[in-house]
Amino acid sequence: SSVAITLEAGVSLGAMPLHLFGTEEQKRQWLPKLCAGEALGAFGLTEPDGGSDAGGTRTTAVLDEATNEWVINGSKCFITNSGTDITELVTVTAVTGRKEDGRPLISAIIVPSGTPGFTVAAPYSKVGWNAS
């Protein structure tokens, strides 16, 4: 079952958001390898001490206007597929602003594997689902 969850996470959490919401450029860059099974994508929502409540996201991101890149500060945990040899991206949720009513504006930002400052910790020691 751990192989099945790895593949399903790669499709539903890695490729599907790009297919549904990505720009044409993002689709051209990422989807061919993800759909061919040559690469995996991951999705980082869950945070230490915060769980998977998107509204409680503590990770923040600020757009660096000089480089036009997002600078993300925070930690995620329990990210299926984040540390494999073929993982090419992790889509990370982060607070990027506030709505008019004060609630956080949560964005999903694509972080390519190997991005400076992006580190993957050792996998958790689990009873099952060791491929996940």
What would your notes on this structure say?
This protein is α+β, with helices and mostly antiparallel strands. The protein has one domain (2-112): Butyryl-CoA Dehydrogenase, subunit A, domain 2. It has two helices and five strands; from the N terminus they run ααβββββ. The strands form two sheets. A three-stranded mixed beta sheet has the order 1-4-5. β4 and β5 (104-112) form a beta hairpin. α1 runs antiparallel to α2 (24-35). The longest helix is centred in the first third of the chain and has 20 residues, at 2-21. The chain starts with a helix and ends in a 20-residue tail after the last strand.
Task: Please sum up the structure shown.
With 132 residues, the protein is α+β, with helices and mostly antiparallel strands.
What distance lies between the first and last C-alpha atoms, to the nearest angstrom?
Answer: 9 Å
Mean pLDDT: 87
At the third CATH level, what is the topology name?
Answer: Butyryl-CoA Dehydrogenase, subunit A, domain 2
Counted beta strands = 5
Q: Beta-strand level of the residues, as a percent range?
A: 25-35%
Total separate domains: 1
Amount of helix: 10-25%
What is the CA-atom radius of gyration, in angstroms? 15 Å
Secondary-structure element string: HHEEEEE
Please tag this protein with its features.
Acyl-CoA_Oxase/DH_mid-dom; 3-stranded mixed sheet; 132 residues; alpha+beta; Acyl-CoA_Oxase/DH_mid-dom_sf; two-stranded antiparallel sheet; single chain; 5 strands; Butyryl-CoA Dehydrogenase, subunit A, domain 2; flavin adenine dinucleotide binding
